[in-house]
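RECORD TYPE: protein structure
NAME: Agmatinase
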Amino acid sequence: MIFDESYSGKVFIMSRATEEEADCVIYGMPMDWTVSFRPGSRFGPNRIREASIGLEEYSPYLDRHLEEVRYHDAGDMMLPFGNPQRSIDMIEGYIDELLEKGKFPLGLGGEHLVTWPVLKAMYRKYRDMAVIHIDAHADLREEYEGEPLSHSTPIRKTCELIGPENVYSFGIRSGMREEFQYAKDSGMFMAKYEVLGPLKKVLPHLAGRPVYVTIDIDVLDPAFAPGTGTAEAGGITSKELLAAIHELAQSEVNVIGSDLVEVAPVYDPTEKTPIAASKFVREMLLGFVK
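PREDICTED:
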């Protein structure tokens, strides 16, 4: 069983009743089995849902209302605790099912390794896809302490799968020297420290292409999002991340799926992190799901 069918908890605000009537499916990937610092991101998806109850359904940024988008919140996947390989296999299989049904996948993490199986499934359908990666960390390691399945490796795996020239990273301000050297030598695009300005320059070159967007909440400065497992000083503001989402939404790229990962609510008693994340998800729904 992939989902707990008896689950009767919170869903993202204004979720449609069934998957069949939806264009987009929201799903949680509550996994933090491979984190290198602080666990807790497995609790992120449900706190984002709970925080969404406080949102307005209307976006003044995009002049759209959530009633205009047909989406269904499937809940959290029942991933086997402590088993990363089985967990990512389950995620990959589920995304295959969603794509076969023509649904737009919008994932809530969970650690960033959960993006890797999603991208494998997406690439089987979209062979000319590009990836936009917004994050504090390069995630270009081949392994962490000898373990290739790590939340520090998904973008390196993605480069090896789809070609580094099709990977675009923004906001990066942390990583090993070797990771930055790999980015420089491989031909991938990496914008250090900033997001919005470099994104505006890149998007015209991606016009018409299928693009998957993955956002790690720790791209924000800890002042705006302390509730994450590997906080990194020197980040962007919530306002800038909203502007980046809107820039993507109003561009000519074809966003084919997205996720928001690494919300770890236990480290944020103020709840500003899940509150911000829920707003980002609202804007992703209104901007990305056509």
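COMMENT: The CA atoms of residues 196 and 241 lie 8 Å apart.
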